[in-house]
Amino acid sequence: MINHFGWSSLTCVYTTDDKNRIQETLYENNIPFKLSVKDLSIKNTFDLPYAGIGTNKLKLSYTFYVKKKDIEFALHLIK
Q1: Do residues 10 and 64 lie in contact, with contact meaning Cβ atoms separated by under 8 Å?
Q2: DSSP string computed for 3-28
Q3: What is the domain-level CATH number for residue 21?
Q4: For residues 77 and 2, what is the distance between their CA atoms, to the nearest angstrom?
Q5: Domain annotation covers residue 50
Q6: What span, in angstroms and rounded, lies between the C-alpha atoms of 60 and 40?
Q7: Local confidence band at 34 (pLDDT 50, 70, 90 cut-offs)
Q8: Residue 25 pLDDT grade (very low, low, confident, very high; cuts 50, 70, 90)
Q9: pTM
Q10: Which of the four pLDDT bands, split at 50, 70 and 90, describes residue 5?
Q11: Which residues lie closer than 8 Å to 62 by C-beta, 6 or more apart?
């Protein structure tokens, strides 16, 4: 669980390419960030054994958080 005190949500993306691009941009510009990953493919606890098997592809969301003082600069960088 991420402690969000002092942090603001920057963006939420759904592909690993977007996640990697944003992660590299923030890292290169020395902006501290936290990353939260949520599995959207599991609708209930009975789906857990079947997630990612066969046609049940994993659907992940990646939410980036940055410190409140860095939010404007980070938003500018990821546009």
Answers
A1: yes
A2: --TTEEEEEEE-SHHHHHHHHHHHHH
A3: 3.30.70
A4: 23
A5: yes
A6: 6
A7: very high
A8: very high
A9: 0.80
A10: confident
A11: 12, 13, 14, 18, 19, 35, 36, 37
Q: How many domains does the chain have?
A: 1
- 3-state DSSP assignment of residue 66: strand
Compare 34 and 55 and report the one with higher pLDDT. 34
Other C-beta atoms closer than 10 Å to the C-beta of 18 total: 14
Residue 47: the pLDDT is 56
- Look-up: residue for tokens 């980070």? 74
Look at residue 2 and tell me if it is in a domain.
Answer: no
Task: Name the residue range of residue 52's domain.
Answer: 7-78
Asked, for residue 52, whether it belongs to a domain, the answer is: yes
Structure tokens that stand for 20 in this block: 């990697």
Q: How many C-beta atoms surround the C-beta of residue 31 within 10 A?
A: 18
Whether 1 is in a domain gets the answer no
